[in-house]
Amino acid sequence: MTQSLDSFKCKTTLNAGGKTYTYFSIPEAEKNGLEGVSKLPFSLKVVLENLLRFEDGRTVTKEDIVACAEWLKTRKSTHEISYRPARVLMQDFTGVPAVVDLAAMRDAAVKLGGDPKKVNPQVPVDLVIDHSVMVDYFGTGDAFKKNVELEYERNGERYEFLRWGQSAFDNFRAVPPGTGICHQVNLEYLAQTVWTKQENGEEIAYPDTLVGTDSHTTMVNGLAVLGWGVGGIEAEAAMLGQPISMLIPEVIGFKLTGKLNEGITATDLVLTVVQMLRAKGVVGKFVEFYGPGLDNLSLEDAATIANMAPEYGATCGFFPVDTDTLKYLEATGRDKDRVALVEAYSKAQGMFRDGGEEPAFTDTLELDISTVVPSLAGPKRPQDRVTLSDAAPEFAKALKEIKGTGGPASVPETAQESRFVDEGATGVLDKAHQRYAVEGKDHGLADGDVVIAAITSCTNTSNPSVLIGAGLVARKALEKGLKVKPWVKTSLAPGSQVVTDYLEKADVQKDLDALGFNLTGYGCTTCIGNSGPLDPAISKTINDNDLVACSVLSGNRNFEGRVNPDVRANYLASPPLVVAYALAGSMHINVAEDSLGEDRNGNPVYLKDLWPTTEEITALIRSSITEEMFRERYSDVFKGDEHWQAIKVEGGMTYGWPAGSTYVQNPPYFEDMTMEPKPLEDIENAAVMGLFLDSITTDHISPAGAIKENSPAGQYLAEHQVARKDFNSYGSRRGNHEVMMRGTFANIRIKNQMVPGVEGGVTMKDGEKKWIYDACMEYQEAGRPLVVFAGKEYGTGSSRDWAAKGTKLLGVRAVIAESFERIHRSNLVGMGVVPLTFKDGESWQSHNITGTESVTIKGIADIQPRQMMDVEVTYADGSTKTIECLCRVDTLDELEYIKAGGILHYVLRNLVTG
Fold first, then answer.
1. 319, 326, 299: which is closest to 359 by C-alpha?
2. Phi and psi for 584 in degrees, rounded to 5?
3. What is the pLDDT of residues 567-586, one digit of tens each?
4. Under CATH, to which class is 671-702+744-913 assigned?
5. 377-612 has CATH 3.30.499.10 classification
6. CB of 493 within 8 A of CB of 456?
């Protein structure tokens, strides 16, 4: 760290746990000229401390620090600052390409005459391998063992590469597969709330902050650790010592009052919060929670809410340090001296919530949490909350929309009479209600049947109340003699090994096992599309009859085509409700009121008969979770199992790229790179590659999920002698740009309006329908640039860097949309792609753009932040129109990235010349 100029004379010391720490005191800075900063939101105090500590007169100036105090007058985002997180967190899907890029930068440094050793993380980096396990095996006692073995078999090349990275790079640690989800490992072990560093003979204390290559990095905000998701591109720059350029954000205060009623879960609460904040509009803003309701939530509840900040659109959802923070740190085995430091530091800084604060917010909203009711969200978006009692009729409405004109929906008129009527092995069963046979099975399938019920994802598997609750629902269901419907694929993928410990100690794991919710892996499975295949006969019946099958998962994402290619309606729900829907087997059943089945005496069993009381759950939590569990599980967390230890580490300072690998390849970003960047040029005569509507997600853009055999990526793998069974997922192949380019814009549910009525990654070129990849390669060969037009909230969802990398490699120079989600806009800039927005009320539709036009964008050659640019459109009939658009290169740092050709090029040139 550069010695701070300390303009406000706030560098001082404090004592905690018998030790002395140096820190930069906000109260002292307030006394010495930063008037009123004690009224800042807690999250902005963390930002202010960062500026005080890194004031160097160049990247951080006195004016930047004063701007934090000035923020109190307008409470708007107007001033650009440089922010430096303490550390970086990665998961393996996004981490592998980040390490690939670092390895490629080392090669490029050598070619440019620089020292490859300089390409090295400058801040601590933790990579947790959690996104590669798939639910191939389920419902058996050996499902976990078999899935792990298959994971290593599929991902051997990637894991060898990560083992090399662990040995080749300083400041880089890898948490091996089978340990847990990165966000829960972060919450339970990596995060410290207050970070420390030895420098110039001093022990400096400062807030624990981070950025992560997964958008749900925000979960750790529940532990008062300021963090959010960024693209791999931006994370790599942070790793390499570059500050993150950002505007001092607006902060929306969310006041919580009251207490959750009996039987209401944290999941119900977070789905309500997501819906409210989406309606409020908080994209690009901080959300900070305050009010007396916080006293009635556990830290795990707070983490559940913080986790889903990407779903409500905010940069983060922050909870300040309070007594629960200290208790959680102790309960999860953190060092006693660290806990003492967190308390002393946060109180000294005015960062400790005591309940009486009313910080100065940009705007506020309020929720009495006693009004929260049982809820789900779906069938396509996390913000589309439906109450449990309305879920069945709301699904019936959604079903008509999903089916469109494709024929009658197979909707049982009376669920109790017709949902399980079967008359043989083939043909239509119960014809009046369109229930179809499944070959070789003694059951049929209908629209609305739940074929996946998954207790999965970091959102809920970090929260003992809902997991113990799910176990108790399973126990009571077994006591009544209920069974999961035979067409339901069940799975349990906890966020850490500690979950297994307490479920077993609570004696409910055996109950979950008996219903088919056996351990399938420690990782992010169903929520990211790693749900594994359905039974082939079930899959065939769904596809042959155009059925709308459903999933119910305790995750945070339910976008189209994400969970499973055979499933068209996905609902987010609490783990206990996941179990309930597995018993019901259909979204047509009103789980709140209808019978879930019959007991051994033929009596109907209702959800209220199975739902545990808060007292029951609390008693089991207290008797089952111990500090020793956390200490034992995390005592040697980087060692890994016998599979990880058996991987041989080869290579030295630079990586020996295996020529035949279909998993890891040297990307082409630095080909023909010179020390001086080429001057920017306007975009001339660009073709339109795609026209997209609102809410196109990074799942639509970025390769994700299974690789289809007939897709360009599938054809590439087949050409490289990869068997269909070994295709693996796009996520596992993120280290190979050849696969990822072919999968960009190739989601099975994406709808390019240039080809109306068609789903999938296709476009029109010269009047002919083509794969987007094939068309883009033809345009590249002809030397013609490309543009994309889109609607509102373009790039929502996970911080997928390949959504930007793939866009760049396909030859897209600019994306023109009505609005962008924060992370994707930043990633486009990081790859040298220019984002532009229409004026309010304008769209590609309002300008009658059909995709047959040519587009010229003026002003790129002398681009400035947030300038207006002329987009000249030439229509097929020869007429022209000039559309004025806002260039969303927002800051001077982003301008430097665009001029350099991308953020990696900018960083590499600085390292080589530094």
1. 319
2. -70, -45
3. 999 999 999 999 999 999 99
4. alpha beta
5. yes
6. yes
C-beta of residue 773 within 8 angstroms of C-beta of residue 761: yes
Name the helix (H) or strand (E) containing 167: helix 143-168
Residue 427 has pLDDT above 70, yes or no: no
Residues 733, 740 contacting (CB under 8 angstroms): yes
User: Which residues, other chains included, contact 537 with Cβ-Cβ below 8 Å and sequence gap of 6+?
Assistant: 438, 439, 440, 441
CATH 3.30.499.10 fits 87-371, yes or no: yes
DSSP per-residue string spanning 658-717: -TT-SS----GGGTT--SSPPPP--EEEEEEEEE--TT-BHHHHS--SBPPTTSHHHHHH
Could you tell me if 215 and 382 are in contact, meaning their C-beta atoms sit under 8 angstroms apart? no
CA–CA gap between residue 89 and residue 452 (Å, rounded): 30
What is the pTM assigned to this prediction?
0.83
Provide the 10 A C-beta neighbour count for residue 114: 20
Alpha-carbon distance 11 to 23, whole Å? 6
For 629, the 3-state DSSP assignment is helix
Q: Is the pLDDT assigned to residue 405 strictly greater than 60?
A: no
Q: What is the CA radius of gyration of the chain?
A: 27
Residue type, 107: D
Cα separations in angstroms, 561 against 529, 714, 746, 811: 8, 17, 11, 25
As a whole number of angstroms, the distance between CA 534 and CA 532 comes to 7
For strands 385-387 and 375-377, give the pairing: antiparallel
- Distance (Å, whole) CA 877 – CA 698: 34
Q: Rounded to an integer, what distance in angstroms lies between the CA atom of residue 127 and that of residue 119?
A: 17
